[in-house]
Amino acid sequence: MEGRTREQCRQGNASIVKAKLKSDSSCHFERSEKSPAPNMNQYYVYIISNNFQSVFYTGVTNNLKRRIYEHKHKLIEGFSSRYKIGKLLYYEETPDIKSAIAREKQIKDMNRKRKIDLIKSINTDFIDLYYNIIGS
After folding, report:
1. Dist CA 106 CA 100 (whole Å)
2. Which of 2, 13, 28, 119 has the most CB atoms within 10 Å of its CB?
3. What is the pLDDT of residues 76-95, one digit of tens each?
4. Could you give the CA distance from residue 55 to residue 68 in angstroms, rounded to a whole number?
């Protein structure tokens, strides 16, 4: 799969169990035949952080397991890989992309205290929720 862009690698039409991007922009997928494709009618707004909760990142995706995996393994260059962010602290589900984007903007506009209160509303101990969702 030489020469594929990172975007093309992320847009595989089968569920990605494990992905690794090399610096030459090639990608290798290990796909599970039993893994279902993401539900395109479900969107997730999520907050991730580093181990010290010193930085928060808010994002939107239609495949939460895959996206958090990408953050954890620094497969996508940017804010989360630069600040070693990959601990899923909060997420919510919505049926359409417009409401997901609106909610993401609303959360991004919150001050730090309000984000912490939001996280504590479902995750009082600030555990990594990723390990709860990968089993489902």
Report:
1. 10
2. 119
3. 888 888 888 889 999 999 99
4. 16
The identity of residue 45, as a single letter, is V
**135: exposed, middle or buried (Cβ count in 10 Å: 0-12, 13-18, 19+):** exposed
On average, the pLDDT of the chain sits at 77
Is residue 61 within 8 Å of 43, Cβ to Cβ? yes
Under 8 Å between Cβ of 1 and 26: yes
Name the β-bridge partners of 46: 59, 91
3-state class (DSSP) for residue 124: coil
In the chain, which segments carry CATH 3.40.1440.10?
A: 43-133
In Å, how far are 101, 116, 122 from 96, measured between CA atoms? 9, 25, 22
CB–CB of 129/88 below 8 Å? yes
Fold of 43-133: GIY-YIG endonuclease (3.40.1440)
Per residue in 109-124, is it b (16+ CB within 10 Å) or e — as a string?
A: eeeeeebbebbeeebe
